[in-house]
Design goal:
mainly beta; Immunoglobulin-like; four-stranded mixed β-sheet; two-stranded antiparallel ribbon; 6 strands
Amino acid sequence: MKLVFCSVDEYPPQFPDCRNFIKGTDDGIASTFITFFEPNATDNSGGNVTVNCTSEIEPSGQTLPIGVYGVHCNAYDQFGNEGVCRFNVTVKGMKDKN
């Protein structure tokens, strides 16, 4: 008789570096160049994690006016568990830096 053991992972991937990003503009300028990085996800299974992010802005870099821009990321492990990270990229005017 052959015994087969199967493990089931019920824990979603985690985003250890999921946090808001804030950058101020130069004095008298109403925009600034922003580059941010999509967050990394890890999983307790040690397997591959697929991360997909959607946003109204591109992480590769662009000039943005003062405002708040939302980013939503999902991570999926090999068992289909889903982890979620939501954060804002905020451009503040010089007077708003405090």
